[in-house]
Amino acid sequence: MTQPKWRSERLSQLGSSIFAEVAAWKLSALESGLDIIDLGIGSPDQPPSPAVRQALSEAALRADMYAYPATKSGLPFRQHAAKWMKHRFDVELDPASEIVTLLGSQDGLAHLAMALCDPGDTVLLPNPGYPIYTASLALAGVEAVLMPLREENDYMPDLEAISDTDWDRATFILLNYPNNPISAVADPAFFERLLAKARQHGVLVVHDLAYSEMGFDGCEPISILEVPGAIDQAVEFHSLSKSFNMAGCRIGFLAGNKEAVAALRELKANIDYGVFDPVQEAGIVALEEAIANPEMPKAGKLYEQRRDVFLQALSDEGWSIAAPKATMFIWAKLPPMQWSQDEPWNSRRISQEMLRQTGVVVVPGEAFGTEGEGYVRIALVENEERLLEAAKRIGSFIRGQG
Ligand SMILES: *Cc1c(COP(=O)(O)O)cnc(C)c1O
Predict the structure, then answer these.
(1) Count of structural domains within the chain
(2) Domain co-membership, 31 together with 85
(3) What pLDDT score was predicted for residue 97?
(4) Among 231, 266, 292, which residue terminates a domain?
(5) Alpha carbon of 210 to ligand 1 centroid (Å)
(6) Ligand 1 atom 2: the closest Cα is on which residue?
(7) Which domain-ending residue is among 292, 318, 334?
(8) Three-state SS across the chain?
(9) Domain of 374: which CATH number?
(10) What's the CA-to-centroid distance between 130 and ligand 1, angstroms?
(11) Do 202 and 311 share a structural domain?
């Protein structure tokens, strides 16, 4: 295919086209009249709390809320973010210099490499990984060194398997626990080893903590900034999208090392003029509410119940999957299936066929990198009744193929 005139080469490097493919499969399934149960995209299906919606609407009615947000200090939101970090993780942060507000953490993830690296630099990324990680490097002309996350290592990267050369030339290492798509959780000992290794090689550790409020069975995901001295070597992304069901509001923040925070703030000052002030007001209320009501059920509670219901139903159908300790995702190793056709057996083909036959949308693991082959990611973003129905359909699909 010849390159269209008004389309950069860069766009073709934005990573996986599989999400677009899944969307196309879904469309054709819809057109064929199938009842679709969409467990594809991880967008929370619940609204923010009433107090958050009230704050947003009241602020939207005020006349002084419509200037470019950047004309104000934006300090109140960052102060509340700092208070919440103290409350939730016992981490002390200076709101003025150690926090930058973002239009969702995706905004920061997309721009971080551009702010910290020069073209030709290197960054260590997880495989599988959340798609914006590789896309942001492509935008910045930065090279990725991929670290496999495998079951035998509890889905942690093998830090010793990364060569000293790769450690030495990397600007930063990016990790994400609780993990999307794998749902694995990290412990403090891992973060300590990671920080020690990074310090030894002068590498910044970037941690994406989008699922801090979605731990199950009493698991409280930790911040890497809890490790003493981490602030010298690490930054962490936080998102109100999953934690407070505010995905559509587009608000999050980066916290940690001053230098890295300042670099991202400087780049963003040239790109956007900040988060809409009513959204910042709503975000303040979400954080305040969480601080004032530690007994309030966290966003994860709902997904924990759904996980139990769904995994039990799938197990009854003959497909047993280990229960994740966090996030809204099930990372499911595909059962062995026999194909009548000569088609190659892979997660992409199986996801497509399953959608065509059952109307259940899942994401093939390879959408997140080569290490995802053999898995699918199932997002628990429909209610229990629909999840039970999905499990039933998946069960008969698997038996039909077995
Ligand atoms: C959802 C998600 C994000 C993006 O969150 P926003 O704050 O809505 O931009 C970032 N990282 C991971 C791993 C996610 O799953």
Answers:
(1) 2
(2) no
(3) 98
(4) 292
(5) 5
(6) 210
(7) 292
(8) CCCCCCCCHHHHHCCCCHHHHHHHHHHHHHHCCCCCEECCCCCCCCCCCHHHHHHHHHHHHCHHHCCCHHHCCCHHHHHHHHHHHHHHHCCCCCCCCCEEEECCHHHHHHHHHHHHCCCCCEEEEEECCCCHHHHHHHHHCCEEEEEECCHHHCCCCCHHHCCHHHHHHEEEEEECCCCCCCCCCCCHHHHHHHHHHHHHHCCEEEEECCCCCCECCCCCCCCHHHCCCHHHCEEEEEEHHHHCCCHHHCCEEEEECHHHHHHHHHHHHHHCCCCCHHHHHHHHHHHHHHHHCCCCCCCHHHHHHHHHHHHHHHHHCCCCCCCCCECCEEEEECCCCCCCCCCCCCHHHHHHHHHHHHCEECEEHHHHCHHHCCEEEEECCCCHHHHHHHHHHHHHHHHHHC
(9) 3.90.1150.10
(10) 8
(11) no
Q: Compute the distance from residue 170 Cα to the ligand 1 centre, in Å.
A: 23
Q: What is the CATH number of the domain that holds 276?
A: 3.40.640.10
Answer whether residue 319 shows pLDDT above 90.
Answer: yes
Q: How far is the CA of 172 from the centre of ligand 1 (A)?
A: 19
Domain of 179? 50-292
Q: What is the mean pLDDT of the chain?
A: 94
For the cut 60, the answer to whether the pLDDT of residue 109 exceeds it is yes
Atom of ligand 1 nearest to the CA of 130: 13
Give the model confidence (pLDDT) of 242-290 as tens digits: 999 999 999 999 999 999 999 999 999 999 999 999 999 999 999 999 9
Is the same domain home to 58 and 14? no
Which amino acid residue places its CA nearest to atom 1 of ligand 1? 210
Query: If you take atom 15 of ligand 1, which residue's CA is the nearest one?
Result: 180
Residue 198 and residue 333 in one domain: no
